[in-house]
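User: Can you write out an input/output pair for a complex, sequences first and structure second?

Assistant: Here is one pair. Inputs:
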Amino acid sequence: MLEVEDLHVHFPTPDGVVQAVNGISYSLGKKEILAIVGESGSGKSVGVLSLLRLIPARDCKVQGSVNFEGKNLLKLSDPEMRELRGNRIAMVFQDPMTSLNPVLRIGDQIQESVIEHQGISEKIAKSRAIELLELVGIPEAGKRYRHYPHQFSGGMRQRIMIAAGLACEPSILIADEPTTALDVTIQAQIIDLVKKLRREIGMSVIWITHDLGIVAGLADRVAVMYAGKIVEFATVDQLFKTPQHPYSRGLLNSLPRLDARSEKPLDAIEGLPPNLINYPASCPFLERCSYQTEHCQIPPEMRSITTTHEVCCHHAGKL
Amino acid sequence: MGFILFLALFADLLSPFAYDRVYFDRVLLMPFEHPEHPLGTDEVGRDYLSRLIYGARTSMMVSLSVQMIALIIGLPIGALAGYFGGAFDFVISRIIDIMTAFPALLFTILIISVLGGGMPTIIVALSITSWIVIARITRAQILTLREQEYCTAARGIGASEWRILFRHLLPNAMSPILIAVSFGIPTAIFAEAGLSFLGLGVNDPIASWGKMVGASNAYVRVYWHLALLPTLAIALTMLGFSFLGDGLRDALDPKQKIRV
């Protein structure tokens, strides 16, 4: 469905080049939900924003290839790219409070992509928008259609964002931490909604999050990102049962567990991620890794442990 | 304020006399001296009340057209400069800087002395200095709004740049622009009055408050009403429009209220 190969995103700044994404490769199958996890600044958002070329070209340098339906998205012309955005690949943004335009009725915002891409009449677009509002569980959709964003709660706005993303029935939905700003109860609703939509309209999803609970509940496969690289790529079961990369292990150990003794403090990963301007020549996780050996001065390559499990560590399979 | 607009619109019906009707036998009457001229007459015998009412029309015509033209020129230029940036923005910003640094009144006087007086010239001259304000505000607004997340979101659903600019960003920028326009109206009224006072404004026999104050110079020691009444008219109109601007700002931009 979607093949990302050796994607690099670099930002030239007065202080040096920020190497936000350093050669990530992954593929997304049909009807698959792929989760990308990682801490802040690990390049998750930049990685997907650059798929749709939503970072202004004057600000960054993107290398690699993104293949979708036989086309390299990074090489398309602007009008071709615009044709794809929202129509075949839709994006839902992180913050529902700022991603809706405050002066436009939500109905207009939902139907915008349909009118833009499919050229249908306002009237059909309107009934489509109301249908979508019902689909994402907004009560009294016919009335709410005419309301403005400030008349909705955060969770409802996020669902409206999702409705707007789904308007053209895209093949791929990219969700950039769509539930981070929401209560857990609303999170659960949205996760159920996404699963239902995957079943019903057969779309693939890339879901960015730093919440491992959501990963376990939603995704088929997971990519763990660290310092602009994918350090481990596995199915959800594999990652939670047999994490191979020291960073993934650290992440899982830092989670509270129901069956653990309550006095025991949670494990944290010591230290900070490397500076993305002076990118280390060694393994990027070296400084924080408790398994380090001399060999780790050489940056590791991605290695397959099983057909569905890849790790970027010299010690993978031996820990 | 509404009253002034009303006077301006229906000047023909409300005035007891035509603004240019001359009564040679009724020159320089004091208010209430003659039953037909409640506010007296001027130095050539024209009914002062009628001239005041027609003066409202002149003020409104000049100030509203000036702001309209300023809006039509300034809004798209400011929006394009702010949104697309680059060389166009650089050129526009420098023009704005230069025009802001140059005294506006001098510039207007220069234009009028080149093109000659009269209402259309005044409107053109004042518009040339007024669009700068609108363009600057629009540019600043668009510059901040284009970094908003809903702008990226709109791009994400495949909206074109023009659509983002005109449908998503400009409506959000409208309130400070409207406020600037409503404050621009009294400024234009005052500029027109000032120019007419200096004799650079509208041509005779059109009534203009500024010109009436100017003409009263020679008679003001005795015939005080000739200076006082048009001055009062200017002051009240400006006050009215300033209140309108304040009210608009309070209504459209609630965050600014706190700063008082």
